[in-house]
Amino acid sequence: GFTGRTWLVAMVLLLAWVVACALFRDARRVTDQFDAAVLRVIAGLRTTWLTEALTEVDAWFSGWTVTVVGIGLLLALVVFKRWRHLFTFLGGVALVELVSGDILYNGFTRPRPYDVATIGRWAGFSLPSPPVVVVTMLLLGIVYGLMVPGPARRMAKWAAAGLIGVFAFARLYLAVDHPFDIL
User: Fold this and answer.
1) CA angle, residues 78, 79, 85, in degrees to nearest 5
2) CB-based contacts of 164: which residues, under 8 Å, 6+ apart?
3) ∠ CA 118-114-100 to the nearest 5 degrees?
4) Going by C-beta distance under 8 Å and a sequence separation of 6 or more, which residues neighbour residue 169?
5) pLDDT digits (tens, 9 = 90+) for 9-48
6) In the predicted model, what is the mean pLDDT of residues 60-70?
7) pLDDT of 99-153, one tens digit each?
8) Chain-centre distance of CA 41, in angstroms?
């Protein structure tokens, strides 16, 4: 459908830009400058209460909660005998791990943001953002594996997009990821 084609086009464009950044210093410089400008604007929004709230959001989405929900998704797909969805999800996870983990993360070692103070917890490099990749894959698995096509799935897509958006904003606010890493 339209959503699937849109995601595929977006993915191809983003991967093309990653390749451009890997090959051309000017593309990296432009990306770094844009990311730094966005992070400076977001850092200007910092307040005590928002920092506490978004630190909690980051902890929920990158902690044990994600593991428990992931195991729950796999069990639900088995219990409901949604074998095609289970194997498609596992294949998608393997493909994302190959591309984002082995190729991008290990081959394109982008450091954490320089321009703003990092106020969240993090480890490793930031391209792509491993927690955002995991949460996105998990929510897509829930939406497409457990929701029936139609209005329920459309609403679930919007809910998943909202959750991913809040989590992504928390990662940017805490300055543990660049905007490009999240995309």
Assistant:
1) 40
2) 132, 135, 136, 139
3) 85
4) 42, 54
5) 988 998 888 888 888 889 888 888 888 889 999 999 999 9
6) 88
7) 776 666 666 666 666 778 788 777 666 677 788 888 999 999 999 999 999 999 9
8) 21
Q: Name, in order, each residue with C-beta under 8 angstroms of 162's C-beta and a sequence gap of 6 or more.
A: none
Query: Which residue type occupies 25?
Result: R
Three state DSSP letters for 23-59 = HCHHHHHHHHHHHHHHHHHHHCCCCHHHHHHHHHHHH
Q: How far apart are the first and last CA of the chain?
A: 21
Structure-block tokens of residue 59: 């902890």
Residue 158: CB atoms within 10 Å = 11
Distance CA 101, CA 90 (A): 15
> How many CB atoms neighbour CB 44 within 10 A?
8
81: left (phi over 0), alpha (psi -120 to 50) or beta: left
pTM score of the predicted model: 0.84
Q: Which helix (H) or strand (E) holds 133?
A: helix 130-146
**Peptide bond before residue 113 is cis, with ω within 30 degrees of 0:** no
